[in-house]
Structures are given as C-alpha cells and as structure tokens.
C-alpha cells in the first residue's frame, strides 16, 4: 500500500547511473487522448497575451547582498504589479519542493499576507516616507520567509 510505504532512506537514493529507464506502452487510445490534450493545450496557449522583458538594473545578488529574501522580494513585486493592474490583492502561486515525500513532489505556497498587503497599499497610495515603505517591505519579506 502506497500510504504505508515509508520511502527510501536518504542513503538508498539511487545515483543517476542506477536509474532504470521507464518504457511506456502507448496504446492507440492513449495516443488519441494525448493528441486531444495537445490540441486543448495549444488552444489555451494561443489565448495568452504574454509580454516579457529582461530587467537589467539589478539581479538577485543585489537583493541578497542587501539582506533580503529573493523569493519574497519577487512575490511582493508580483503582488504590487497585480494591484497596479487590477486594484486589489490576489493569491499568488509559488511552487516549492517537498523533499521528505517519497520521490519528492512539488507543493505550493500562497503568499498573500497582511504585511504584504500593507506594503502594496502604502506604495500605491504614496503614504509615508521611503524609509517607512522600506520597513514595510522588509517586514513583508520576512513574513514570506516563515
């Protein structure tokens, strides 16, 4: 039973050389279902309006050398942009690896906090000094890290 299986001990994890190649038997039914899924995904993909750019002013090293948690910083930036576009806070999705499960797995953390909201709303309203905004940002990032 999968629920009773404790998983391998860390010393038992195979090295890449010991991993067995998985061979899949793709039946005609599975192949047709994969094609339907591909078509649906392609249709969804075509509806996205995505624009990206490369930010060159600074990177994660600057954030880290200033004692800030990189992921929290990025999450606050995303929340600020979302608030700017939509006028409200949103739940953000951040995948995290949970290593203690058998074979590992990804989980998610939803990162909206009252501290993040206070920072975003202060920036948007233009309240307080830059020092006050900085303190709100640091508090929100520290809260994100917990």
Question: Describe it for me?
Answer:
The protein is mainly alpha-helical. It is built from five helices and two strands. It has helices at 28-46, 60-65, 70-86, 114-125, 130-145, and strands at residues 93-98, 105-110. A hairpin with a 6-residue loop joins β1 and β2 (105-110). The longest helix has 19 residues, at 28-46. The chain is elongated and about 65 Å long. Mean pLDDT is 78; it is low at 1-5.
Low-confidence stretches: 1-5
SSE series: HHHEEHH
Category from helices, strands and their pairing: mainly alpha
* Rg for CA atoms: 22 Å
CA distance, first residue to last residue: 34 Å
Total helical elements: 5
Shape: elongated
Spatial ordering of strands, largest sheet? 1-2
Strand content: 5-15%
| Percent range of helical residues | 40-55%
Number of DSSP-assigned strands: 2
For the biggest sheet, the summary is:
2 strands, antiparallel
- What is the average per-residue confidence, as pLDDT, rounded to a whole number? 78
């Amino acid at each position: 039973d999968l629920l009773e299986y404790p998983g391998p001990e860390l010393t038992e994890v195979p090295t890449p050389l010991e991993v067995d190649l998985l061979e899949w038997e793709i039946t005609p039914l599975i192949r047709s279902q994969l094609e339907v899924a591909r078509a649906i995904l392609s249709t969804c993909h075509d509806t996205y309006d995505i624009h990206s750019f490369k930010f060159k002013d600074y990177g994660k090293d600057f954030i880290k050398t200033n004692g800030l948690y990189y992921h929290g910083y990025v999450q606050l930036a995303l929340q600020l942009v979302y608030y700017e576009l939509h006028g409200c806070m949103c739940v953000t999705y951040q995948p995290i690896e949970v290593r203690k499960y058998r074979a590992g797995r990804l989980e998610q953390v939803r990162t909206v906090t009252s501290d993040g909201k206070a920072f975003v709303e202060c920036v948007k309203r233009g309240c307080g000094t830059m020092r006050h905004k900085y303190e709100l940002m640091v508090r929100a990032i520290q809260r994100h890290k917990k």
